[in-house]
Amino acid sequence: MWLSRYLELTQFRKNTGHCNVPQQYSSNLALGKWVHKQRQDFKKVQGNFTTEYMEKRFKVLVDIGFEFETNNRAESLWHQRFKELQEYKLVMGNCNVPQTYLPNRPLGKWVRRQRYEFTKIIDGESSTLTEHRIEALTAIGFKWAIRSRRKKKQAL
User: Does 119 fall in a domain?
Assistant: First the structure.
């Protein structure tokens, strides 16, 4: 089973350029959980006795660019949702994913969040939406539905 998941991870890396599979990876939940377990196992044995067998596993993971300790999970998740949005657009012809999109509710919520983060930029607030992300979304035809939240606040 380990080798099977490892091969799935190498395919994920080939497709995305990284090994940061989200724990709740909608395309392959088992792979997301497996990656999480690899990180947990590594933390358990760090500084303690490890078997040669475990060390070999850790080494082959490192050799493909796997990070046992990563702060990049949010970045990985963003890229995964972006890829899902691209797939949605291929099928539906637009990027207007409903928040309650039953085949992939996280994608609908993510799309809403991107628009919210963009309104924060318009209002001069800090945002998780980088220039690179804005360019990538715009390039695939993402519509921002631009409006300021300040106007709403002032009306209250």
Answer: yes
Is the overall model pTM greater than 0.70, yes or no? no
Q: Rounded to an integer, what is the distance from CA 46 to the centroid of its chain? A: 26
Per-residue pLDDT at 153: 53
Mark which of 36, 63, 90 sits at the end of a domain. Answer: 63
Going by C-beta distance under 8 Å and a sequence separation of 6 or more, which residues neighbour residue 52? none
pLDDT tens digits along 136-145: 899 999 998 7
d(CA 67, CA 63): 10
Distance between CA atoms of residues 65 and 122, nearest Å: 37
More confident residue, 96 or 43: 96
Q: For residues 125 and 51, state if they share a domain.
A: no
